[in-house]
Amino acid sequence: MEIILNLTRHCIETASKRKYEHLIRQWFKLADTDKKRIPIEQQITALKYFLEKAEFSDLRNRCNKINPAEKKAVLIVSQHFEKMHVRFNNTTLYPIWKTR
């Protein structure tokens, strides 16, 4: 699964929080029987893990070193959340995960 993060005005942490909040709002707008809920739920779950476990100070620093002007990142989510990573054009960053 891929989750696009808009970095136009925010760092990767804030962009992730905003995407998470956006998806929550979308989820509540859908009927209980709507099949669109499942992929949204999966994205919400992945972003929740990312927001709770990633070391964002390290990730922000590495993002800024790659290309501070980059406006989009893609969070690539595999079946095992601890293997998710962030892609900027041709560069891939693997987050450092909090141990506690």
Counting DSSP H or I runs of 4 or more residues, the number of helices is 3
Radius of gyration, rounded? 14 Å
N→C terminal distance? 26 Å
Structural class: alpha+beta
Report the principal-axis shape: globular
Total number of strands: 4
Strand order of the largest sheet: 1-2-3-4
Summarize model confidence as the mean pLDDT.
Answer: 90
Task: List low-pLDDT spans.
Answer: none
Q: Let me know the largest β-sheet.
A: 4 strands, antiparallel
Written overview of the protein:
The chain is 46% helix and 17% strand. With 100 residues, the chain is α+β, with helices and mostly antiparallel strands. Strands 1-2-3-4 form a 4-stranded antiparallel β-sheet. The longest helix has 18 residues, at 12-29. The model has no long low-confidence stretch (mean pLDDT 90).
In short:
This protein has 3 helices and 4 strands. It has helices at 12-29, 37-53, 56-66; strands at residues 2-6, 72-76, 85-88, 91-93. The chain has a 4-stranded antiparallel β-sheet with strand order 1-2-3-4.
Helix and strand topology:
Elements: E1 2-6, H1 12-29, H2 37-53, H3 56-66, E2 72-76, E3 85-88, E4 91-93
Antiparallel strand pairs: 1-2, 2-3, 3-4
List its salient traits:
single chain; 100 residues; alpha+beta; four-stranded antiparallel β-sheet; 3 helices
